[in-house]
Amino acid sequence: MSGTPPERPHSHQKGLITNHWNDLPTGYIPSPTSSTPRSTSRNSSTLAVGSTINRIASASPLRQSNGATDGCQPSQSRHDGDGPGGSATDDEAKPLDVLLPTLYNLPSTLSRNEHTMLQTRINKSLLPGKGDGGVTAPQRLWIRGLLHGFVVEGTIDGKAAKEEIVAFMRRESGVAGWASSVRKLVESVVEQSAG
Questions:
Q1: pLDDT: is 133 or 157 the higher one?
Q2: Residue 180: inside a domain
Q3: Low complexity bias located where (predicted)?
Q4: Domain range spanning residue 151?
Q5: pLDDT in tens, 47-62
Q6: Which of 17, 47, 73, 93 gives the lowest tally of CB atoms within 10 Å of its CB?
Q7: Is 33 part of a structural domain of the chain?
Q8: What gap in Å lies between CA 176 and CA 171, rounded to an integer?
Q9: Domain count, the chain
């Protein structure tokens, strides 16, 4: 056995790697003045002329609301409408204390314990007298419209409802606890064949 340790690896620059551990050759670093499309798009913080990004519009409900319910004007909401895809007016949509039990009674793939836990979490946030979840009136209107379309009218399928709920959680703060529970219940509903 020889007494000399193995040679340490060398950097692309002169010296040992310990001296230049984070250095890259200049060809690997795009310069801000480079005219390549990759570096200009990476370094640019402006949009092209005429292009706009409207994230709220893409994630907002599909229909406009024409009235107020629960003391909330539609203009008070950060988005328009009371729920995606629903065709009922605010007066025709059933209240949450009717819609939620209807959702709970649909056939589900969840275990009884998990179903009960999700139901309790949702009720504490959305139903008056069960708890204070800090849910705003526009948020109640939105979930009411979604559930009406999913449970009563059948105009919203499970996949669309899930996508709408996920978009809702992204744009609203403080709703993840109960909204993710609604999403999980909606996903677990067993679709019944019309045959």
A1: 157
A2: yes
A3: 30-46
A4: 95-192
A5: 444 444 333 333 334 3
A6: 47
A7: no
A8: 11
A9: 1
